[in-house]
Amino acid sequence: MTSLIETRALARNFGAVTAAADINVTINAGEIVGVIGSNGAGKTTFINMVTGYLPPSSGEILFKGKSILGKTPRQVMRAGICRSFQVAQLFPDLTVLDNVLIAYGMLKKGSLSLLRPLANARSIQQAETLLEEYGIAEYLPEMVVTLPQGVRKLLDIALAMIGKPEVLLLDEPTSGVAIDDKFELMDTVMRAVRSSGSAVLFVEHDMEVIARYSTRLLAFYDGRVLADGPTAEVMSDEKVKEFVTGHHLEISSPKEPAHA
Amino acid sequence: MKIATILLIAAAIAALAAGLVMPGWLTFMLTLALAKGLVVLGLLLLMRAGLVSFGQGLYYCLGAYCVGIAGDYLQTQNALLLMLLAVVACVALAAIIGLLLCRYRDIFFAMFSMAFSMILYGILVKSTAFGSTDGFNVKPPLLFGWTPGGESSPMMAYGLAVVAVTGVGIFVWNYLRSPMGYAGEAIRENEIRVEYLGVSVRKVIYIKYLLAAAMAGLGGAITALAAGHIDPEMAYWTTSGEFVFIALMGGTGHAAGPVLGSIIFELLRTYAFQISPYTWQMILGTALLAIILYLPKGVWSLVERITKRIAA
Amino acid sequence: MKLVIAMLMDGMIYASWLFLIAAGLTLIYGVMRILNMAHGSFYAIGAYAGASLVGFYLAGGYPPWGAYLVLLGAAIFSGIIIGLLVERGLLRFMYGRDEVVMILVTYAILLILEDVIKLAWGVDAYFAYQPYTLLGRTKLVGLSYANYDIALIFISASICFLLWWGLNRTRQGKLLQAVIHDRDTAAFLGINVTRMFTVTFVIGAVLGTFAGALTAPGISVMPGIGIEVIILAFAVVVIGGLGSIGGALTGALIVGLARSASVHLYPEAELFVIYGVMAVVLAFRPQGLFAIATARKI
Hints:
The structure holds three protein chains of three kinds. By secondary structure, chain B is mostly helical. Chain B has 13 helices and two strands; from the N terminus they run αααααβααααβαααα.
């Protein structure tokens, strides 16, 4: 297995608060890695650091053996790491079609043409195909502000996948999505990921989703990686039960409050 | 060529022809309106990206002073050369200031651009060589050694204004449909997403800022040629405020908005000033409030609504 | 040496004047997130009200010392009226809009008030120099200063102290700080945010008219003074960091001293230097010197 992302002793402080400390994580090609941990355990901080949004206080981040430390989100994205967001980051006052067209338009080489129209028969066709793949083609002419939460999440992930990433980082893909729709959403995303061959790291609170989709599991606690290994092993780890999942693992807490 | 473009060029030719029979004062007023329209077309690019510049007067004034100063010191009266000089100077200055400004958003962008414009104002007011607060007169320009309609005629500046607005208008119209144009919308809506789509937000804003400066400089140059007189007031913040007002009134949804807005603005001003000079600003202020409250997409959105109804 | 003292004195006088104008502007921004362009008009209204009432009062042959009370009364009275009118009559319908939109709204108010002033007071200049000359002058190492200007420094310092004390040492001030910190949570905790807004805006407006009324005896009060002043006040508050009283004080001192240095050493740069300082500060501290922190976005 070739390692795609490798972090070494990654740490981040906010003043006296330690948001992440000594994080050594390797993500290999083809892996589907789940991440669990309570709020403030450092999950989003980890994603923000890997994608260049937040500079680490210390440590090293390698992508395919080369350091990507100090690169901007844009450079990291161009290198092949894309992400989704806990709160979908979209263009709310534009239509779904425009959102996708912009994403495709930005991606092309010499993308910032001044005079060639962004919307043409070919680019619209391309956008329709993408939205069909994610099962949200019916929303094409809708404004993003009017979309249900689940559709926004899917669109957010679809925009990330347009970059054809080698690694896709998903920050709570099912948060804010109705319980009944969680698996459908994850099925859709996993189908797309499989066809592109990307490795995936996803942050998730729902243990059923973790159990069903991840092959490997990272448990974060207090800014550190508490456990790292095959999902079943980590889930039955005593420390993880005590500090991360609590004792109600078997009940699998479906009543988890949604994050806005 | 698209039908819209052909129609627009036809309209421009009609406007030129009309200039031959229009009374002088109307030609003059329309020239000033179109010159302002150029500035506002540039402002539109910024405003679509969510950036309100309260300092476009900087380039408007710089463009005008370039024409005046070059006319005096370079001994040239060639209108096209003077206009080109003005645009080059504005883009050069914007290339420096833009590096700084493209890091700012919201009120900071507005205030910072205003500060730069006030710096130019401060310099000009204290520079006796350029007539300080009084400004100075611009030599009458020539077009290839020829003054159409005689030296006192406003015809030439009008012609230049119509051609410039048509050209810039077509450019902006296409620009708004291009990836670069959409990038502006995207930045207004969500910068984080734009960065994660692999595009530099600052670069996009920088390019827009340069384009806006070029258009403002062109507008200033034409104003100088048409009015024959320039003064530091062009860089004062109230002038920049006027441009923002026109942009809001015309609407930023379409390239025609700024042109329509500036013509209405000049007409309003001419008449309001004649009828009641002490309530002109009150009328402006009330209109601005009304637009913000009831017509946030400007007068052009009315035109669009009407044409849609006719089409349906 | 004499030059340095002259520069410092002029700088301090100018800075205290700037602080008086900037204090209301920054207070309103801090609490309401409105960069109030109409603050310049408040200043002008205060100046007109002060100058015309003082003229009226002195023409009646009353004791000249009373003119100071008239100035104060004119400032407070006009400030409360215009503040209430603008906030209750207009701004409250606009709350929750984008900060840039609010700039445009207050710009519209500025335009309207400019003409209201012309309609109310005409376009001729008003003079009310008596309060200025009445206090006499003081010699300081061979330089002569109007005692009125020196008093301005103390008044400005007292206003600064009062604002600090009011915000940090009173119950109402602490509630206001809660609103500044997090409007929604404050409302949730039962603080009457709407009333806080009204009170803040009126206090800010009174600070504006007060600055105008205090300035009136030293200048000729004529149309356009508000337009000139607002842009200076912007420079001051932006340098200090919008919404911070301490920032307004620092900004006023920086701009005041820089301008007076320029006036004494290189008068051509007088106007340039103010905005030059602003540009330099913003280039290194984009949010101003004392900025309010913003929260994580993703």
